[in-house]
Structures are given as structure tokens and as C-alpha cells.
Amino acid sequence: MSKSAELTALIRDRAGAEALAYGLILGSGLGHLAEQVDGVAIDYADLPGFPHAGVSGHNPKLVVGQLGGTRVAVFGGRSHYYESGRADAMRLPLEVLAELGAEAVLATNAAGSLRADMPTGSLMLLSDHINFSGLNPLIGEPTDRRFVPMGDAHDPAIRSALREAARAEDVDLHEGVYAWYSGPSFETPAEIRAIRTLGADAVGMSTVPEVILARFLGLKAAAISTITNMAAGLSDEAISHEHTKAMAPLGAAKLEKVLTRFLN
Ligand code: HPA
Q1: How many structural domains are present in the chain?
Q2: Residue 263: is its pLDDT beyond 90?
Q3: DSSP SS3 for 132
């Protein structure tokens, strides 16, 4: 049995075999949503190959159950490229999600804003992304399936439903392009000016490899950023991981409302 098939069997055994609709990946400081799920929590430590070392501000558990009337799997933590040098660090969890029957993955993250009209505490739905890192989780994949089209990688129907959910919750949901920067150091002001020229609206260290992997695995994808700071050089605000974790709750409450309404 493949590693993902073994894990899928283990999760079905613990949390029930009913197919899932969505997988949710929670970013830094956004772990609270996992607690709203009515279901079974499994520590990543019990799921061999899941990224349980993790980053502070993440909660390394998989929770499978009902949220907003929909059966979901919530990943309380993610693995980033900068932890291991592996852009495919989330491949196994996403393979398992696909095998559990999910149709789509919704990723959340903390990000820096490049737009004055999108201050700390704002939410931004990703209309698209720029893989500014040049890395790719499919490097080394031997099959022709590696040539994944990315034209509608951020699913238009899901984005439209998320916009609708935000409207219904009276939440201001910006929309823009997210640039993936490898991290773990933050960007320089010159790098931020460069990606602004290239069309980025927000910058962060995650999500893009997950969207690529999701499309590779036949899952639809969409993502929302919580803006935790203005990007380097754009304000006097501090930029640090501590600041990211401290500011994430500003957007998190709105994000939870939007996602819960969407799942309804
Ligand atoms: N840059 C990269 N990643 C981030 C930032 C940032 O400014 N804020 C939160 N995550």
C-alpha cells in the first residue's frame, strides 16, 4: 500500500469513511477555526510523513468533521519550503486529502500587503499568484502529469462563492495577486518594489506550492490571505514573525465568518 493509502485508511478508521467536500489549510495564527469543527482531531505526530515539526503559531493537527454543515478536513498546520528546502513538503497531506474524496482545497495564510488600500487586518482573496521563488513542488515528478496547466488555478466558481459569502457576512474581501517568496527571511524594500512592479498585491511564504500540488492532484483550489503587516519599506510597522502572529487574529475572525458561510 502507498504511504497516502495507509494514511487515508488510518484517518477513515478514526474519523469515519464518509467522503469529504473540502480541505482547509490554516496559516500562521489562524488555527482557531480547527476548534470549530465538530469531529475528530488527529495529531500530525500520529500521521507519519505529516509535517509535525512545524512553525510556532501553527497547530499540527488534522481535524475531520462538520463545519458550517459541510464535511471538511482542517489542516491546523502546514509545512513551508523554508523548513526543509523541499517545495513538495505538503504533497503527502494533499494526496491524502484527494484520496479522502475532497473536491477542493482552501488555503489561508498570513501575508504582507503591497497596497495602501489593504492595511493590516484586511482579507485578500487570491485572484492569481506569482511564483517569485522559481521553485516548484513538481520538480522531479517523473510523469507527464507534471505539466499542470495553471490558467484557472484559483478556481473561478469557488472565488465567486467566497465573494458572495463575504458580502453576506458584510466583510470587505479584497482581491489580488499573491507573490510567493521563499523565506524565511523577510523581503527587502527593494524586493518589495520589484514584485510590486511585477503586479503583486501581497507577499508571503506559503500557499503557492500547495495550489500547484492541488491542481496536479485534480483538486480545485482557492486561497485567502490575512494581511498582518505592510510589506517591507511601505510603513514604519514592525515586520517579524511575532508581529505576524499578533496581527493574524485581526483578520482571523472575519476569515472564519467568510469560510463558515461559504461552507453553508
Ligand atoms: N512577507 C512574507 N511573508 C509574510 C509577511 C511579509 O511581509 N507577512 C506575513 N507573512
Answers
A1: 1
A2: yes
A3: coil
